[in-house]
Amino acid sequence: MASRQIKWGILGCSSIGERAVIPGIKGSETGVVAAIASRTETKAKETAERLDIPKAYSSYEAVLADDEIDAVYIPLPNHLHMEWTLKAAEAGKHVLCEKPIALTAAEAERMAEACERAGVVLAEAFMYRLHPRYEKIREMIAAGDIGELRGIHGTFTFNGAANKSNVRFVKEWGGGSVYDIGVYPISAARLVTGLEPEAVTCRALFSPEHGDVDMMASGLVEFPNDVSLTFDCGMWAEFRNTLEILGTTGRIEVPSAYIGPQNIVLHSKGQSTELEMPTLNTYTLQADAFARAANGEAPLPFAPQDAVLNMRVVDACLKSAREKARVTL
């Protein structure tokens, strides 16, 4: 348990914040949601009252100026992540930033450097990685439970195409499926292999009726040792979020890899065994891990440089999809 509770300020009244991150912080041992801000005063006050948050501000600047706030959560549209992370760092606030952390690896690097200079913690909000099942998966691979690793396949799709006003469909704001959900299988493959990709090939459906963003994308991400991730992500397809790790003598199946039920299935030597994992709120795990780092009690499980490296792959995927070419890293 952290020695000091972290007082959080929330920049924006986003659905992910209201639905998951704020309840996760409230359920943690280490955090208190002390303030929330919106560009609209009425919305800030209504949200604060509904979620039982003590302070409501009509500007993000006001949260940063509040001396009682230790850390901010940034769930703003993707193109605003760097701007408000830099401002938060300058104000001496720790930062939990929604994924993708930025629009490019260069932006992510700038954010990481600014937070390091300011002596504040910066983390990308990939909550799923904090569940112990991913450490279990890494242990199973290392122990040879599926033989030699041969390949990984990841998916994350949902159908939100009908809502044409969705911010995910604004190209200039960092819209598109690779930014929004493709980042999950990419980060998961890097996590379970412990390796960084060498090249990427990606193809995408760019939809003129959705701001010309990639509404569906499929990719091949080449890792060292001739292991590859194949993935697809989409915002105009049936829902799924899966991960399959294939070896020479078995495979590990994660039926709900990022959200939903948390069990995993080991297929090995002709048998399939469902491994029961503890049911944990990964948003709460994220809040507690962040607080331990902010309090100087433990390092972040994933340093800011991890976010930079993930964005390098995202950059390559988008470049490949636009140019219809293989991109080396």
UniProtKB/TrEMBL annotation:
Superkingdom of origin: Bacteria
Residues in GFO/IDH/MocA-like oxidoreductase domain copies: 134-253
GO molecular function (one): oxidoreductase activity
Keywords linked to the UniProt accession: Oxidoreductase
Gene3D superfamilies (UniProt xref): Dihydrodipicolinate Reductase, domain 2 (3.30.360.10), NAD(P)-binding Rossmann-like Domain (3.40.50.720)
SUPFAM superfamilies found in the cross-reference section: Glyceraldehyde-3-phosphate dehydrogenase-like, C-terminal domain, NAD(P)-binding Rossmann-fold domains
The keyword GTP-binding is annotated on this UniProt entry: no
Residue stretches making up the Gfo/Idh/MocA-like oxidoreductase N-terminal domain: 6-124
InterPro entries tied to this protein: Gfo/Idh/MocA-like_OxRdtase_N (IPR000683), Gfo/Idh/MocA_domain (IPR050984), GFO_IDH_MocA-like_dom (IPR055170), NAD(P)-bd_dom_sf (IPR036291)
Family (UniProt): Belongs to the Gfo/Idh/MocA family.
PANTHER family assigned to the protein according to its UniProt record, in alphabetical order: OXIDOREDUCTASES, TRANS-1,2-DIHYDROBENZENE-1,2-DIOL DEHYDROGENASE
Record-given protein name: Gfo/Idh/MocA family oxidoreductase
